[in-house]
Amino acid sequence: MDNLKKQSWVQYDDGYLSKTPVWQYILVSLIFPMWGMAASLNDILITQFKTVFTLSDTATAFVQSAFYGGYFLIALPASYIIRKNTYKTAIMTGLTFFIIGCALFFPASHMATYGMFLAAIFVIAIGLSFLETSCDTYSTMMGPREFANRRINISQTLIPFGDAMGIILGKYLIFSGHSNLQNESAGLNAAQKMALNKEVLALTLRPYKYILFVLLILLVLVAITKMPYGKAKADAKTANQPSMGESLNYLFHNWRFMKAVGAQFLYVGIQTCVWSFTIRLALRIVPGISDHAATNYMIISYMVWFVGKLFANWFMNRYSITKTMIWYCVLGTIVLLLTCSIHSPLAIWGAVATSFFFGPVYPTVYAHGLDQIEEKQHTETGGALMVMSLVGGAALPVIMGRVSDLTGSMQFSFIVPAIGFVLILWFFLSEHKIAKKEAQKA
Hints:
This protein is mainly α. 76% of the residues lie in helices and 0% in strands. α3 (62-84) packs antiparallel against α19 and α15 (321-339) packs antiparallel against α20 (415-441).
């Protein structure tokens, strides 16, 4: 398809297009659920690794540290590749690393060491960092500027399907044949426990076989498809793109953009906290529940997350974006406070309900942050900083795990994401005030 001479869109100087190329937009959007699938499988792996490797809650959180740490370290190099090449190059690079990381689960399951699994997860995260740095920003650029927020929200709406599929694959392929792994391993001698652990780790390979197949198809489709450039033209004064240092200097002095980066750091952190600990919260609160059955709470969480996104899209088409997000943050905070204070199975449903209010936060903060970049030649680096903020998913779960270990109450540790939601609420309140002042001036 790359040799097609005609195209249906016109590229504007600021990088946006005159119209959205439907097939290319669909293809990019189909990549979104793939990183959701990888992220939700981590929640399954955490439950497995805790028992197999005899880990504390703090130690299990290092799965998320390896995952989101990869995002943090690779986002700027990914943006550099986009600046020097194209979004298409970055997407293909990301898919390639994703494939390599999935393939590393095969030797990891045979070596049976926690460190090797963390290495495989880190390589997957390298690929996902390339994909999110490129696809999130690319989605906003693939059409007229005024619909950028809508485009990324639609693309992000597909992520819950990937998350749910990851949990379903984990439920039926990893947890298959076992009820409660911790109970099964209790009372076994060293040889029996080693045999059980070997069997359990071998099961982790099964979902990644299917993921590899899908990734290879996506890689081929991207390779043969003509993709729009989607980048702002060079500054007319310099006839060159700004250097990385110049872009970072501009962005670091852009207060509203940096506030958005901070809000994104907190959001990814609290989302990862809630989703990483929901299954284990169920295992602790519901007597005799199996690992297999506990995953149902996460499947429902992702369904609720999807519904939350749909409602948010409806509200944002009728009310202001910031006002919609203020209400989502207020209600999300209340639900989390109930989760950490109600001592009954209702606490689990509180954690599940929180996903409804997570729905629109990430894409809205992302698009809102990029919209604060008036000099669009800095957009690629701005997108990288947004993706780097995903390191919140590495930091906050460790804090939550530490609170759980120190207090002896996993339920109380949900106070950590509740505090994070309050801070995100402050971000949207401040942005709402600015938006009202700007409207009055106009």
